[in-house]
Each structure stands twice: as C-alpha cells, then as structure tokens.
Amino acid sequence: MTSETEIFPGHVSRLGLGSIPLAELAHYTGLQLLQRVVAGEYPAPSIAARMNFALVEIEEGRAVFRGLPGERHLNPLGGVHGGWAATVMDSALGCCIHAMLGIGEAFSTAEMKINYTRPITPQTGIVTCEGKVVHKGRTLAVSEARLTDGQGRLLAFGTETCSIFPMSRLQG
Predict the structure, then answer these.
(1) Structure-derived torsion over alpha carbons of residues 15, 34, 7, 47, reported in degrees to the nearest 10
(2) How many CA atoms lie within 13 A of 150 on its CB side?
(3) Alpha-carbon distance 86 to 139, whole Å?
(4) Are 169 and 117 in contact (CB under 8 A)?
(5) What is the sign, positive or negative, of the torsion defined by CA atoms of 149, 152, 153, 154?
(6) DSSP annotation of 81
(7) How far apart are the C-alpha atoms of 105 and 98, rounded to whole Å?
(8) Residue of 52, 79, 100, 127 with fewest CB within 10 Å of its CB?
(9) What is the 3-state secondary structure (H, E, C) of 145-167?
(10) Per-10-residue mean pLDDT for the chain, 172 residues long?
(11) Cα separation, 99 vs 63, whole angstroms
(12) What is the C-alpha to C-alpha distance for residues 59 and 32, in angstroms, rounded to an integer?
C-alpha cells in the first residue's frame, strides 16, 4: 500500500504550506491563481496536507482533486469520516467556481449538499473528485461534483452555492 506521504509529492509546493497572498488577488484571475497552485508557485494549502489531497487539474469552470484516505481520517466505527469526503468535495466545488472569477473577485461557500453513496475506507485507495460549474452569475454561482474511487464507482455527489464578492471584503 502506498503511504500517505508518497501519494502527491509532485503537488506539494517547494514553498511549504500556506495561502495565496491576498495581494495577488488584485493581479490574477481565479484561474491564473489556481494554475499557480497546481504548478507549485504558491505554498500548498495546509488543509490539503492535513487531509492528504491535492488539486491536480484546473480549467475554467472545472477542478479535479485526488486524495488518499488513511487511518488518520477514521471515525469511531473504523470508516473514513464523512467530513473527509466533504472537505475534498468542498474544495472541488469551490475551486471550479474560483476558476471562473475575474481579477479582484473572491468567493465563499454559502451552502453545500452531499449525498454519500458508498462507504470509504483506507482500503478504498486513491479517490478523484471532479467539480464543474452549473451556473455563474454576478453574485452567486452553483457547482456540482462527483467523488469516485479508482474503479470509477460513485462514492458521493453534491452541489454547492457560493457567494461572489469583491476581494476588498476579505481584508476585514
């Protein structure tokens, strides 16, 4: 079995863990920012390291994450906690919307709905979550995502609504 630290070495930034500098929002579109994340030009998000998943593909209106659930993600009954899948899905659902934002725009999740269709265990192996934008307006966007295992079996699917607003509202 592949260890968790070996699964995404190409997607861990040489810059360590962190966030996209807020000042960069004023210079790049959402797609450009996320392309830089995939290329390792920004630090990897700390949540990705903690949860062992990574953004592996990005294009306008589409985001793909891959992850490897492990022993550290278990619930008391020995299955992978639903929050692990929700975190991967929230990332794909949000990033596909982020990839459609213009310079100076930001977003925040307003609502998320997930249906779990099959248990996830450490033996499930690598999972893939693909998020796609269904609708993008001026202030709201809606996306959908599917989480599948290595054999293409559906593990969960969901939708998300995000609020879109000027980046200046992030600076408090």
Answers:
(1) 70
(2) 9
(3) 24
(4) no
(5) positive
(6) P
(7) 9
(8) 79
(9) EEEECCCCCEEEEEEEEEEEEEH
(10) 43 71 87 93 86 95 96 94 97 98 94 98 96 98 98 98 90 59
(11) 8
(12) 9
